Amino acid sequence: MNPKPPVFPQADRNNPAAIYRPVSTSRRNELLSWISAAALAVSGYYTIYRTGRLPWLHSLFLGIFLTASAAISLANWLDRETSITSSEQGIEYSSPLRHCTMAWQSVEIVRILTFNRGFRIFVQSGKDHFTYRTISPGVSKSEPDQPGIILDGDLLTAQILEQGCFSFPIWQDGYWEYRAAKPEQANSSASGET
């Protein structure tokens, strides 16, 4: 039996323009990670000074902490610099790694995948695509438990689905897929024909 499609709140028709940003991880975690890596580096230097060599286990932990610190810093930077802007004309996704702009009419497919207490939304036009994550409607937005989530992403998803002329969602192997109706289908459904 297929689950019911997700229901999103009504988009704000009075304010179609908005900027959405993902939640970053705490800068405190990033700082603690770099402090731990620095402490391992200092203790490694001291060990080399006292014994003339660095144990391989110390080198391994230093490498792990430096890699983790760099990954946390990169993820925080990407989250801080990523934005999704909606306007009357369309939607624009911007991050340091990619940039795409889609007119509302050019959005062809919206896929909604469920994950822990939320959704991963995949938006595709003919030549571009982007993804974002949002929490499920009804889940408290006061303390997001995962970084990278757009807190008002449910409103953004509702706006995307309302602006495009999408067919009823189809359940496909673990996700819901909305496809843009072809112009002749949109005209016939608007006029009340079947």
Q: What does the secondary structure layout of this molecule look like, with pairings?
A:
Elements: E1 18-20, H1 27-51, H2 56-81, E2 83-86, E3 90-94, E4 99-103, E5 107-115, E6 118-125, E7 129-135, E8 149-150, H3 153-163, E9 170-172, E10 175-179, H4 183-190
Helix pairs in contact: 1-2
Low-pLDDT segments: 189-194
Instruction: Provide the residue-averaged pLDDT.
Output: 82
Residue share in β-strands: 25-35%
Largest sheet: 6 strands, mixed
What percent of the residues sit in helical stretches (DSSP H or I)?
25-40%
Q: Care to count the β-strands?
A: 10
State Rg. Answer: 23 Å
Number of domains: 1
How is the largest sheet built, in terms of strand order?
A: 8-7-6-5-10-9
- How would you sum up the global shape? elongated
Distance between the termini: 27 Å
Number of continuous helical runs:
4
